[in-house]
Amino acid sequence: MHKPRTNTTIEEINQSLIELMAEWRISEKDDELIFTKIVGLQLKKIRLAKGFTQTRVAKAVNVTFQQIQKYEKGTNEVKSLNLKKLSEYFDVSFDYWIKPILDANLTLLTKRRENVYPIKNDIFMER
């Protein structure tokens, strides 16, 4: 039996990210949870790499340190506005938060979306 991961090191976080991505596309509900957890792990990884406390990050983006804890655990979803603030604070691009998903080329849609209502060009030509 393996020891549960605590995600207190960057190596553990990276392993958790790999395992989460392996669970991708089980169900839409699971994808939402996995997405939120990946964003949280990316936050924890960059915070640890920079040596910042949860309190310091929380003050910088105007949330409580408990909220940062919940983000990092994947309990709470990070609002887009707060992701933008975190991107500016850590000086990373907005897509940093989902970089593991992008790098693995994981998709959310299972089939290509088709135009349900085809546009009739002649309607625009009549005017």
Overview of this structure, please?
By secondary structure, the protein is mainly alpha-helical. It has seven helices and no strands. Helix 2 crosses helix 4 and helix 3 packs across helix 4. The longest helix has 23 residues. The radius of gyration is 19 Å and the shape is globular. The mean pLDDT is 87.
Mean pLDDT: 87
Helix amount, in percent? 55-70%
Secondary-structure-based class equals: mainly alpha
- Poorly predicted tracts of residues: none
The largest pleated sheet is described as:
none
Shape category: globular
Radius of gyration: 19 Å
End-to-end C-alpha gap: 72 Å
Order of helices and strands: HHHHHHH
> Approximately what portion of the residues adopt beta-strand conformation?
under 5%
Helical run tally: 7
Question: What's the β-strand tally?
Answer: 0
Identify the notable features of this structure and list them briefly.
single chain, 59% helix, 0% strand, globular, mainly alpha, 127 residues
Summarize the structure.
This protein has 127 residues and is mainly α. It has helices spanning 10-22, 28-50, 54-61, 65-73, 80-90, 99-103, 121-126.
Q: What is the topology?
A:
Blueprint: H1 10-22, H2 28-50, H3 54-61, H4 65-73, H5 80-90, H6 99-103, H7 121-126
